[in-house]
Amino acid sequence: MPIVVRLDVELAQRKLAVGDFAERVGLSPANVAVLKNGRAKAIRFSTLEAICRELDCQPGDLLEWVPDGQEPD
Hints:
Elements lengths: L2 E3 L1 H8 L3 H8 L3 H8 L8 H11 L3 H4 E3 L8
Antiparallel strand pairs: 1-2
Helix pairs in contact: 2-3
Pfam family, one: HTH_26
Protein name: Transcriptional regulator
Organism: Zhihengliuella flava
């Protein structure tokens, strides 16, 4: 998949547990896990906004485009 979600990296850097983060953002822990593990097929802008607000980051900090056949950084 050419879009890589870096939510796991951002949560690890901030030492945030998925459950705590999910509660703060207003998502279920299962939905955060889907995003974190790169299994999501889509994300609502309102969800992306809530995540960026909570993590004080930009969407580009969470999402990376990787050409087919290349490994993500």
